[in-house]
Task: inverse folding
C-alpha cells in the first residue's frame, strides 16, 4: 500500500486521521521530535533568533539555539494503510499561545516535552491541556549533559496526576519518539473510554 493508493484489485482505503500536538517550552526539542518521525519533509516555520527577540526569548540553558518556531511544525506518519497521524508542533513562546486553541481543535491528545534544566517552561502546556481535558503525556527529552533524575522525582516536580504517563525520550531518535507517540495513543484511548463510562453512570 502506498499512501493514497490501494493495491491492484482492492478498493481504495480512506484512512482514519488522528491529530497529535507536540507542545512544551522554548527550545525543548519540538521541531526535532516532529522531524525525527515524519515520513514527509516536515513543514517548518523557523526563523533566526535576533537581538530584537532577546528580551522575550530566554535562551538560558539552550544557548546553542539559533532559530525559533514562529507558527508551527507539521509532520505525518502512516501507521498502517487505514491510520495516519498528523503531528503539529506548537510554538513555545508565550506570545504565540493564541495559536494553541486553533491547533488543539479536534486533537486526539498531546505530547508535552520537558527539559530537566528548565522544567518550569512546560508548566503552561501542562496547565493548558489539563484545563481543557485534552489527554497528554509528558516526554522528558534527555539532552546530553543534562542531569538525570528518577521518573518519580520529575513527576513530583511537575505535580502531575498519577494517571498522566511520564516517559523518558530522545527527540532525535525515531524509535524513542515512536514509543512516546504509542504511549500517547494508548493513554488517549483509555482516557476517552473512562470519560464515556463516567458519562453513562
Result:
Amino acid at each position: 500500500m502506498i499512501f493514497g493508493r490501494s493495491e491492484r484489485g482492492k478498493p481504495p482505503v480512506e484512512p482514519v486521521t488522528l491529530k497529535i500536538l507536540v507542545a512544551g517550552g522554548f527550545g525543548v526539542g519540538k521541531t526535532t521530535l516532529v522531524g525525527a518521525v515524519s515520513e514527509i519533509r516536515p513543514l517548518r516555520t523557523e526563523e533566526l533568533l535576533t537581538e530584537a527577540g532577546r528580551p522575550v526569548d530566554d535562551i538560558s540553558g539552550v544557548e546553542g539555539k539559533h532559530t525559533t518556531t514562529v507558527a508551527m511544525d507539521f509532520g505525518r506518519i502512516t501507521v498502517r494503510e487505514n491510520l495516519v497521524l498528523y503531528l503539529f508542533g506548537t510554538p513555545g513562546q508565550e506570545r504565540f499561545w493564541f495559536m494553541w486553541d486553533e491547533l488543539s481543535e479536534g486533537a486526539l491528545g498531546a505530547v508535552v516535552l520537558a527539559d530537566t534544566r528548565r522544567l518550569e517552561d512546560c508548566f503552561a502546556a501542562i496547565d493548558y491541556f489539563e484545563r481543557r481535558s485534552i489527554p497528554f503525556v509528558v516526554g522528558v527529552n534527555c539532552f546530553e549533559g543534562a542531569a538525570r533524575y528518577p521518573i518519580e522525582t520529575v513527576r513530583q516536580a511537575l505535580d502531575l496526576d498519577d494517571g498522566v504517563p511520564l516517559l523518558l525520550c530522545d527527540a532525535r531518535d525515531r524509535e524513542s519518539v515512536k514509543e512516546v507517540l504509542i504511549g500517547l495513543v494508548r493513554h488517549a484511548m483509555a482516557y476517552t473510554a473512562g470519560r464515556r463510562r463516567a458519562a453513562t453512570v
In short: The first strand starts at residue 16 and ends at 24.
